[in-house]
Amino acid sequence: LSFLKPNRKSRGDEDPAVLLVDDDADHLFLIKHRLKKDGHQVLTATGAGEAMEVLASHPVSVVISDAHMPEMSGVEFLQRVKSVYPDTVRIMLSGHSDIDILRKAINLGEVHRFFLKDMDYEELGNEVRKVLQRKKVNA
């Protein structure tokens, strides 16, 4: 499996990106459009396997993942991201206010923030901007 042996480019090769993972193409488009307004490089994937391949080939600072995906849960996916790329900030989105998923994500330390999909996209954009500014200062 390609994600077991990261083959990321060095940080100097390209700016770190934001990776959006969701099987809903409309939702991917809306968030990508919002984040690109702030000038972020935005990569997308429609599932966990594809997302791990993107992570293995690109420097990614922030992963924003849906909680419900066909291949595996968002919690399981973000656990994998955390184990292979521990410095990557992880944000989870859900279309439902599912307390069990939220509890698992927070208690397992898999997420930095949790947003409902019906949120104000400006709030998500502001959070991504803050995270990337902090990472730049600490680099």
Question: What's the structural blueprint in terms of helices and strands?
Answer:
Elements (H helix, E strand, L loop, with lengths): L16 E5 L3 H13 L4 E4 L2 H10 L2 E7 L7 H11 L4 E6 L4 H9 L5 E4 L4 H18 L1
Parallel strand pairs: 1-2, 1-3, 3-4, 4-5
Helix pairs in contact: 1-5
Can you characterise this structure?
This protein is of the alpha/beta class and 139 residues long. The protein has helices spanning 25-37, 48-57, 74-84, 99-107, 121-138; strands at 17-21, 42-45, 60-66, 89-94, 113-116. It has a 5-stranded parallel sheet, sandwiched between helices. α1 (25-37) packs across α5 (121-138). The N and C termini lie far apart (30 Å). Mean pLDDT is 84; it is low at 1-13.
Q: What characteristic shape results from the CA principal axes?
A: globular
The biggest beta sheet is recorded as:
5 strands, parallel
Beta content: 15-25%
Supply the number of helical segments: 5
Query: Structural class, from secondary structure content?
Result: alpha/beta
What spatial order of strands do you see in the largest sheet?
2-1-3-4-5
- SSE order, as H and E? EHEHEHEHEH
Radius of gyration: 14 Å
Give unreliable regions as ranges. Answer: 1-13
Helix content: 40-55%
Total beta strand runs? 5
Report the span from N to C terminus: 30 Å
Would you tell me the overall average pLDDT?
Answer: 84
